[in-house]
């Protein structure tokens, strides 16, 4: 869909076009809130990370420094953002790859005075805290961590030859998720038990502000490297905050252009900066000063609750919109040969993705209604836990119902969907000829590489 109908900054256009304009409005603001809340959320995270060093500097001072730094980078426009992310990305990649290698060495007993660990912590205290219910209870955090991967496909779709760039972009996202998320977190689970008191949420009398990556290094007895890793984590968090300002400002500008937000947000200066939208992002970022209160971690939890399920709604809507688009495409007499790019798993993949997202929402309702240890909690604690797990749902429903009642929209029928306006014109025959000519010159190793990456 992104190849056929390029959109700028927001995926809500797909929901508006192929589902319901009211749902498109809800998804547009849902996506905007995901990025708007990310700035104060990541700034609060940064202050929590700084607690590891016990600097003694008041939290508001750090919040001010971080906000000024992030906004300054974004005021340099796309070039400033790109240069900062380039440097930060190199640091993050080197750190993660280095930790994976170090983690394997520590696990097999290669650390200073270490012994073989293996899968010890998967047996005692266990691999999953509180079993299946515990696994479902952290899906909000996991969904928030994986948010943003959809931007890769959108950016690649806007290139001159999406048939060439999109397959490579999709495969690289898969491998990056596997290596930088799944592999690194699996190694962490081998090195740090889930009941370590130094983790956030551990014993109150402990330094319960340490990352599991840092704890793994401390347990190995490697002096100084724990502070280096903590600094890298701090840079990674600030990088997300930087991306949040960039993403939220562009999303707000796109919503304004679609007349789903105040028109003033669409203002862009001569250097291509949506200044008004950037100022709005900064204003929301002031929520980061909540980190100066005693309820620092509670503030973190509520900020996650506001936007944690946003990516679930985004991807669920993308999958459903793709199903409806393909149905309308077939119903109106078109063939797949007319599309420059088709999803490899096709409609079946979108159906599976939609069902998985619905199941995640159902799991969140269950863990919100009956959280871990709910029998021991007061009714007020259980109510608070429910809204922290499920808060994004009533927000989305309020946006959807309000827009639908006000504008009296209806669900788009397949025969009524406009499949012509705004469709990108690509010379498929020319692209295919260019593709085959280039592939004919590839050596065997490159063909295998392209098959995987």
Query: How is the main sheet built?
Result: none
Oligomer: single chain
Distance between the termini: 22 Å
Helix-and-strand structural type: mainly alpha
So how many helices? 19
Overall body shape: globular
* Low confidence ranges: 204-208
Mean pLDDT: 83
Helical percentage: 55-70%
Number of strands: 0
Q: Strand fraction band? A: under 5%
The helix/strand series, from N terminus to C terminus, equals: HHHHHHHHHHHHHHHHHHH
Rounded Rg = 23 Å
Describe, in plain words, how this protein is organized in 3D.
There is one protein chain. The protein is an all-alpha fold. Helices cover 68% and strands 0% of the residues. The chain is built from 19 helices and no strands. The protein has helices spanning 12-18, 21-50, 59-75, 77-107, 120-126, 131-137, 139-146, 150-157, 162-191, 212-220, 225-257, 275-285, 296-307, 310-331, 346-369, 379-390, 392-407, 428-440, 444-452. The chain is globular and about 70 Å long. Mean pLDDT is 83; it is low at 204-208.
């Amino acid at each position: 869909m992104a190849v056929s109908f390029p959109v700028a900054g927001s995926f809500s256009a797909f929901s508006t076009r192929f589902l319901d304009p009211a749902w498109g409005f809800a998804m547009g603001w849902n996506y905007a809130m995901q990025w708007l809340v990310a700035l104060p959320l990541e700034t609060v995270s940064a202050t929590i990370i700084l607690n590891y060093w016990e600097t003694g500097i008041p939290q508001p001072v750090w919040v001010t420094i971080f906000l000024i730094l992030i906004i300054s980078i974004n005021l340099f426009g796309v070039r400033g953002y790109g240069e900062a992310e380039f440097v930060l990305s190199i640091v993050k990649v080197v750190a993660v790859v280095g930790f994976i290698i170090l983690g394997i060495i520590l696990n097999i007993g290669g650390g200073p005075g270490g012994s073989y660990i293996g899968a010890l912590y998967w047996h005692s205290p266990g691999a999953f805290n509180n079993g299946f219910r515990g696994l479902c209870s952290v899906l909000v955090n996991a969904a928030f961590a994986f948010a943003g991967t959809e931007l890769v496909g959108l950016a690649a779709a806007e290139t001159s030859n999406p048939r060439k760039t999109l397959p490579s972009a999709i495969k690289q996202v898969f491998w990056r998720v596997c290596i930088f998320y799944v592999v690194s977190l699996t190694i962490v689970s081998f090195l740090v038990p889930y009941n370590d008191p130094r983790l956030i949420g551990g014993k109150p009398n402990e330094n319960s502000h340490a990352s599991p990556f840092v704890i793994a290094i401390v347990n190995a007895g490697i002096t100084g490297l724990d502070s280096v890793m903590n600094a890298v984590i701090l840079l990674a968090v600030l990088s997300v905050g930087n991306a949040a300002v960039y993403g939220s400002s562009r999303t707000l500008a796109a919503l304004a252009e679609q007349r789903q937000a105040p028109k003033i947000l669409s203002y862009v200066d001569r250097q291509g900066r949506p200044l008004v939208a950037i100022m709005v992002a900064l204003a929301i970022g002031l929520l980061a000063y909540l980190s100066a209160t005693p309820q620092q971690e509670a503030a973190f939890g509520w900020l996650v609750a506001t936007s944690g399920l946003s990516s679930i709604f985004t991807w669920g809507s993308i999958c459903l919109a793709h199903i409806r688009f393909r149905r309308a495409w077939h119903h109106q007499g078109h063939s797949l040969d007319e599309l420059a790019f088709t999803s490899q798993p096709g409609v079946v993949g979108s159906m599976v993705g939609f069902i998985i997202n619905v199941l995640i929402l159902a799991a969140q309702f269950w863990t919100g209604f009956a959280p871990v240890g709910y029998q021991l909690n007061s009714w007020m604690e259980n109510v608070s836990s429910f809204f922290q797990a499920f808060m994004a749902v009533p927000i989305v429903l309020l946006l959807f119902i309000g827009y639908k009642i006000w504008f009296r929209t209806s669900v788009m029928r397949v025969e009524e969907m406009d499949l012509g306006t705004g469709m990108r014109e690509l010379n498929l025959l020319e692209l295919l000829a260019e593709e085959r000519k280039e592939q004919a010159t590839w050596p065997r190793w490159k063909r295998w590489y392209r098959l995987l990456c």
